[in-house]
Amino acid sequence: MQYVLFAMQLMQYYITRYCASFHYKILLLMFVCVPLTILQAKPEPPSLELDLDLKKDEVVYATISASKDSRSIGVEKDFTLRWTLYRNEGLVVLVRYDKYPYQFILYKDYKLNGWTLNLLDTQGINRSPNQPSIKIYFLGIDDPFNDEKSIAHLRIYGFGEMNFSRK
Predict the structure, then answer these.
(1) CA angle 156-49-96, nearest 5°?
(2) In the beta sheet, which residues pair with residue 134?
(3) Buried-most residue among 2, 80, 86, 107 (CB within 10 A)?
(4) How do residues 142-162 score in pLDDT, each as one tens digit?
């Protein structure tokens, strides 16, 4: 990370010192500095990966303990997950975390197939990228037109310092 910052500072010095034309400065910024910052931003690998196959109104009970870092101790909070309806290619999901209910619709489309829950700041007031969170993805459904035999396939990813245990 220090090497990337040093390279960016060096390129900025080179641009201001030796590039007389404005167009050369823009091109140099686009082809050198922007890729360096993109290389620096790597996504954090998930600390939890869980696949769920749920029938309609089947409830998953779990406890989640989350903390800001590995030194602090997280308080265990109750977590429930179920789905109630599949219509127009949308899956209605109900989540209850820390006695607070959430309801959302997940689709198979790329941008609409996931939902994120910040575990320490559920209202999203003090959001930061390092806070622990879970992300629920909708993968698909078997036999969508028969409510009694429908099975939804979900995947849960956990990020940060957290512990997820099913009851």
Answers:
(1) 30
(2) 117, 158
(3) 86
(4) 988 887 889 999 999 998 888
- Range list of β-strands (E), 88-150: 90-97, 100-107, 114-118, 133-142
Question: What H or E segment, with its residue span, contains residue 76?
Answer: strand 76-87
Quick one: which H or E segment has residue 36? helix 34-40
Given the structure tokens 């209605």, which residue do they identify? Answer: 92
pTM attached to this predicted model: 0.71
CA distances from 53 to 14, 39, 81, 99, 102 (A): 56, 36, 12, 24, 20
pLDDT of the residue at 30: 62
Predicted local confidence at residue 47, as pLDDT: 86
102 Cβ contact partners less than 8 Å away, ≥ 6 residues apart:
94, 95, 96, 115, 117
Strands in 90-97's sheet, in edge-to-edge order, are 100-107, 90-97, 76-87, 60-66, 162-166
Are the CB atoms for 164 and 50 separated by under 8 Å?
yes
Contact 159, 57 (CB under 8 A): no
Closest CA relative to residue 163, chosen from 42, 83, 72: 72
The parts of the chain modelled with pLDDT lower than 50 are none
